[in-house]
Amino acid sequence: MFGKRKASAKRFSLLLLEEEEDYVQDWVVRCRWPRTVSGNWQAVTELPGRIRLCTRSLFFEPDDVRVPIARLPFADVQALEQGGAPSPSSFSCVSTSVTKMRANMEEVPYAFVKGKSSVWVFTLMYAPLHSFMPSAQQLLAINHVPNRLQRGRELEAFVHAHEDASSFDTSRLLDFSERVLLEVPAAQLSPLVREHGHLVVTDARIYFQPLHNVSGDTPVRSHPLVAVAAVARRRSSLRQIGLEVFFVGPDLIQDSAAAVASGDTAMHAGSIRGSAGRGGQVGFAAMPALSVGPLWDAPSAFFAFRSECEREAAAAALLACPKLGSLMAASMPAAASNLHDSGSDSVRLEGRLSSGGGGDGGGGGARAAAVVAAHGRMLEAQGGWLPRVTAAWQAGRVSNFDYLLYLNLAAGRSFNDLAQWPVFPWVLADYTSSSLDLDNPATFRDLSKPVGALNPARLQDFRKRFRDMPADSFEEEGGIRPFMYGTHYSTPGYVMYWLLRAAPAHMLRLQNGRFDAPDRLFASIRESWQSVNTSSTDVKELIPEFFLPGGDWLVNAQRLPLGVRQSGAAVDDVELPPWADGPEDFLAKHRQALESPYVSSHLHQWIDLIFGYKQTGPAAEEADNVFFHLTYEGAVDVSKVSDPIELRALECQINEFGQTPAQLFKHPHPPRLVCPPAACPAASAAAGGVAEGLGMGASNSNSSTGRYSALALALMSTVAAASSMKTAQVTLGPGAPPMTRVPVGASQLLPSKQVEGQVQTVGGSTGHSGVHVSQPQQVHGDGQGRWGPPSTPTLALPVSPATARGNNDGALAGGDGEGGG
Description:
Strand content: 15-25%
Helix content: 25-40%
Number of strands: 23
């Protein structure tokens, strides 16, 4: 993700590579810069620097940062020969094009020089020429193969051969007593970047050793397994070959050790404070002091493997480790009985785990091991956690932001993949008033409708297109299934539209070295809202950054040359609504709106559209929620696509059209029962400070260090709330049939009683003042993330632990039940 690692002093970045290009090797050289190419501003005879060999091009990075990096595409290289200078370690390269980039360390559009032949002479300083020439000439020959399919296969074989020729350096293990459980070639993915290397799982840590330490930070990245929060299978390039590993942040680990060392069993320093809109704290039990060693420098790592079989081997090695996630599991002992009693699939892994000591009291044994495995799968929809997190959100224990983030992650969205970036809703409709009135329903967007249906007049045009497309054309060769929207609400281009100012290097990579036209750049919140309400090609939703502290993406702090619009206005800082006093104030008030009672009571309707039953089928048509068919998961069976060119074309189409999240709910999502009042903007900003404290490091674009650490913060607080949820059967009164199983313990937040089948507030509440309770709808959870009409009338009603034990006039038909949520 953009907030991933500390900025390097080097100019070169893997973002400078082309699509599907891989890094090979680099050498220290001296370069004779051609006189026909500008850039050598001092006319130095030989420029010292480094030549970088990649699969599709040569890069020369001068040591003088004032001289641009030069890229020589192999497709335009006419000759690559030994000689050209007196030294036996010299070679010449004749190219008809050169791309100049990052002069003076600036993120500005690239300069392209084409049509003129230029001769570049390089001299290797510390290596013999034969260490470079064979590989370079082989790649030159491959890039001149006329058949694109054959060219792609040969480049892939070249990369795999280099991977297979290397192995993990076991001297990099933190402790030589560690036992290696798995070593497999893999690529670590981050937005628009792919690093090949070796993934290693030991009985204590997870390691990744890139083939080349391009970033210059550390040759091996690693993290203790006890501080792995979750492991989730992912799609990568349409195939089930991805695996994302989520980490507990360094501050939480350090605070845990400090608390234990000081005897502070409450571990107050490491308590996780909920997001804005939640009062109080989620307390964590004392955790064992750990000598954890190095930690991963990001909240998660996304790996892509060569096959699904290798992905499954990596997942099995991680999930079968008894230490996996024990830092989290130990802090949430309530999950032991809850998840074990639920009979979820994750618990069934316990047979594969080490049994350890016996007894529940000591936290060992098969039950404790099962809890560890359950936490490892908390971000997989079938892992048993989804209904519990939903129940915790209904009871007001999980904020709207945290719940949406959890649903995104459970549906396969990732901050490491622009094509699957988390999606959040527009929640406001007022970007023109001088003050923001969150008590006025007109202030808010209609969450029951997709963006494309917000404007009735435009909607008629979309409906007409849908009706006019022949329904049977999809069955024909090359036919297209009818759709309403030719674009999507989440695409890589839309993500970079919002984040251009924070990650200009990513925009240049996505746009082939250019920024978009000034009139198409993100310049005003109000104009962007108008566009998604009026344009026939714009139905995009928002991203999580709109609700997190850190407003660098709204300010042109790098003074990027974004151009001048047709109106004559220069594109600079983003124009904010009149009710916002600045970027941080805007983000705090926007977060306040997300956590407001109005949004809380309507958010389930938007979830139905994005993650639920209105995503596909007749319900989607009725809701005007039909997108291009390739955007839906499973629309194409890539295992049956034998032509790599066709597969690549499908990937490009999906990246252009966007990807719909995996469907999590097959039936209407239940509404929220407890709707706490939104915190004031100052409190929202203070809650954001906790995320800032986790500091996962800045990106090359100098983005906020804490923005993406909210991933770890929200995940931990969500799991803490969900792990304590139990279920019970409730009746409406004497003689009434049993009701839906609902969370026990919600009345700790809200004392309530039943009056004619509805929930009403009867007094103050613990931790929330002025709590609003929405009128519940009749829903039923089956324990697998599916909600639908029950066989008997139901009511999702918060009840107290005493009531759950049957001590309240027989209101309960049963005690602790299954973990169905």
